[in-house]
């Protein structure tokens, strides 16, 4: 079994252990926010995203992501946060993971706000302006994109199916779209999930700082926009994605002191090199964590403390003198 497999939730494995302090703290916030909304339903009007009130209450762009109004919603959010955070935080660090969650949550809420305003002007239905929108699903979708980036080839055991981690965000998006046509009430969650996937990809693709390789973002082909879709669609999607890249994110950002272009155009083969570096870096971090766990188990099995053994040797040496 590879070291990476020990950190990916699998059937029969110890998935519900080893959670990080940051994720535990955020899980407590999600739980307390849910209790607050249940005890004081009127608080949802100030904490959830209500587009008609966002201009005076701009803080709901941040707070809406941490408000789960249903019991199944808070359970899924807490479990997902603990499991996905356990994989990502050892590789990113607590500070970077917290930054990622904040940026994805804020940008997703902003995109949902703009979308509802546009839909209102198109349909003139006031429900788009006054329906409270909230939920942690955008961040959960973004965490899945992070796992796709770090461990794209890792297989997840989902009941009787084995699915590569790189396809999980795409499957979640497809299922969300399909369910929204069947259950109309689930339509409210669809923009949050889709924007969560896209905005997290934007951040990881173009803006995340990675000091260990001297680059900003991930220019590898394995993390391109078309990598979220089946291979036969990529010849169609790649030209479209390149247009939006030039419009919104097109820049020749260079890392400090290295001169590496973000898109890797000056260095042929840099995409595959970066992908290999990413896999090796993730594998080393996971193997290191596994080694630390094994060392802790072995140290606990030692019966005689080393200090006592050292003291006995010193006594024997003094007797001989």
TrEMBL record:
PANTHER family: PLACENTAL PROTEIN 6, RHOMBOID-LIKE PROTEIN 19
Transmembrane segments: 26-50, 70-88, 100-122, 128-147, 159-182, 188-206
GO CC entries: membrane
Segments for region (Disordered): 256-284, 299-321
Chain intervals with Polar residues compositional bias: 305-315
Primary localisation category: membrane
Keyword field contains Zinc: no
Keywords noted in UniProt: Membrane, Transmembrane, Transmembrane helix
SUPFAM superfamilies recorded: Rhomboid-like (SSF144091)
Species this protein is from: Urochloa decumbens
Protein name: Rhomboid-like protein 19
InterPro entries in the record: Rhomboid-like_sf, TMEM115/Pdh1/Rbl19
Membrane topology of this protein: Multi-pass membrane protein
Basic and acidic residues: bias regions: 274-284
Subcellular location: Membrane
């Amino acid at each position: 079994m590879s070291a990476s497999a020990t950190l990916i939730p699998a059937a029969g494995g110890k998935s519900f252990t080893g959670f990080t302090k940051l994720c535990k703290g955020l899980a407590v916030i999600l739980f307390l926010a849910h209790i607050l909304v249940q005890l004081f339903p009127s608080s949802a009007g100030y904490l959830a995203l209500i587009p008609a009130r966002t201009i005076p209450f701009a803080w709901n762009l941040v707070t809406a992501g941490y408000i789960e109004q249903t019991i199944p919603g808070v359970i899924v959010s807490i479990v997902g946060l603990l499991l996905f955070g356990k994989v990502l935080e050892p590789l990113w660090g607590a500070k970077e993971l917290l930054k990622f969650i904040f940026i994805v949550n804020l940008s997703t809420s902003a995109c949902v706000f703009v979308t509802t305003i546009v839909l209102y002007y198109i349909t003139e239905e006031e429900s788009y302006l006054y329906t409270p929108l909230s939920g942690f699903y955008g961040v959960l979708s973004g965490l899945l994109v992070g796992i796709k980036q770090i461990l794209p080839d890792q297989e997840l055991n989902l009941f009787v199916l084995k699915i590569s981690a790189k396809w999980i965000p795409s499957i979640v998006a497809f299922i969300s779209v399909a369910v929204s046509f069947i259950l109309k009430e689930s339509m409210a969650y669809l923009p949050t999930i889709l924007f969560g996937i896209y905005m997290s990809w934007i951040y990881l693709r173009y803006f995340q700082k990675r000091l260990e390789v001297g680059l900003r973002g991930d220019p590898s082909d394995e993390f391109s926009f078309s990598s979220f879709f089946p291979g036969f669609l990529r010849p169609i999607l790649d030209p479209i994605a390149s247009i939006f890249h030039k419009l919104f994110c097109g820049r020749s950002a260079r890392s400090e002191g290295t001169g590496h272009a973000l898109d890797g155009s000056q260095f042929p083969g840099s995409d595959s090199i970066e992908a290999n570096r990413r896999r090796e870096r993730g594998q080393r971090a996971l193997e290191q964590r596994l080694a630390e766990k094994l060392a802790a188990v072995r140290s606990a099995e030692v019966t005689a403390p080393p200090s006592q053994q050292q003291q006995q040797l010193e006594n024997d040496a003094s007797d001989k003198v």
